[in-house]
Write a structure and sequence with these properties.
- The chain has five helices and eight strands.
- By secondary structure, it is α+β, with helices and mostly antiparallel strands.
- It has a single domain, classed as Cyclic phosphodiesterase (Cyclic Phosphodiesterase, Chain: A, Alpha-Beta Complex), CATH 3.90.1140.10.
- Strand 3 and strand 4 (89-96) form a beta hairpin.
C-alpha cells in the first residue's frame, strides 16, 4: 500500500510564548470544557498539505528552502486578541500587529509558498460554539498581550495520513538567512516588552 503523508508549514514562536498559549488554552478549557485544538501547540500556520505522496512533495521542499534562504529573520508583535467573523462558531486567536513591514514580509513568504493572503495569528480556541463563546470571548476581549518575538526559521511538520498516530512530527526546519533591505526598516522601531511570569493564567 502506498504511503501518504500530511504536511503542515508553520512559524514557531519561542518557548515562553508557546507556554503562554498553552496556559490560555488550559484556562479556556476550565471555563467551557473541551474544544477543537485545545492540545495543539501555539504557532502560526501558513499552509496545510493533505494526502501527499512523499516522493513527489518532499523534493519540492528543497526548492522551497532555496527560496526561503533569501528571506531575512523578522520580528513580529503580538497585539492582544481577536476573532474571525462569527458564524455558528467563533475562533479566538492572539493577533499579530499589522505594519507595512510585516505585510511586506508575509507577502514575500506567501509568494514562496504559493499561498493566498491570510491573517497571521496564533490560535487559542478554534471553532467554539456561540453559546460557549459568549462565556469565553469576554475573558479575552480586552485582555492586553503585547510582546515581540523574532522568527528565524520556518518549520515543516509531517504525519501519516492514514496512520494510527496522528501526532505531528518535525520534518524540516528552514532558516531565514537573508539580509533585510535597509529601506524596509529605516522607520521601524522595536518595542521593549515586559512579561509577567506566572505559573497559571486565570480568565476570571
Amino acid at each position: 500500500m502506498e504511503t501518504y503523508k500530511d504536511y503542515m508549514i508553520i512559524l514557531s514562536p519561542p518557548m515562553h510564548i508557546a507556554e503562554q498559549v498553552k496556559k490560555f488554552k488550559q484556562a479556556a478549557e476550565r471555563l467551557i470544557g473541551e474544544f477543537d485544538g485545545m492540545h495543539s501547540k501555539g504557532c502560526i500556520v501558513l499552509k496545510m498539505l493533505h494526502r501527499q505522496k512523499p516522493f513527489w512533495t518532499e523534493p519540492l521542499f528543497e526548492k522551497l528552502e532555496k527560496q526561503l534562504s533569501l528571506m531575512e529573520p523578522f520580528t513580529l508583535q503580538i497585539n492582544g486578541f481577536a476573532t474571525f467573523l462569527p458564524t455558528d462558531y467563533i475562533t479566538i486567536y492572539a493577533a499579530i500587529k499589522s505594519t507595512p513591514e510585516m505585510e511586506d514580509w508575509f507577502k514575500r513568504l506567501r509568494q514562496c509558498l504559493n499561498e493566498k493572503k491570510a491573517v497571521p495569528h496564533i490560535t487559542i480556541a478554534r471553532q467554539v460554539p456561540n453559546d460557549k463563546a459568549k462565556k469565553l470571548w469576554p475573558k479575552f476581549k480586552d485582555r492586553p498581550w503585547d510582546e515581540c518575538f523574532e522568527v528565524k526559521y520556518l518549520t515543516i511538520l509531517e504525519r501519516e495520513t492514514y496512520g494510527f498516530d496522528q501526532t505531528w512530527q518535525p520534518f524540516k526546519s528552514i532558516p531565514f538567512r537573508g539580509k533585510a533591505e535597509w529601506y524596509l526598516f529605516k522607520d521601524h522601531k522595536k518595542g521593549v516588552v515586559k512579561q509577567d511570569d506566572k505559573d497559571q493564567i486565570s480568565l476570571f
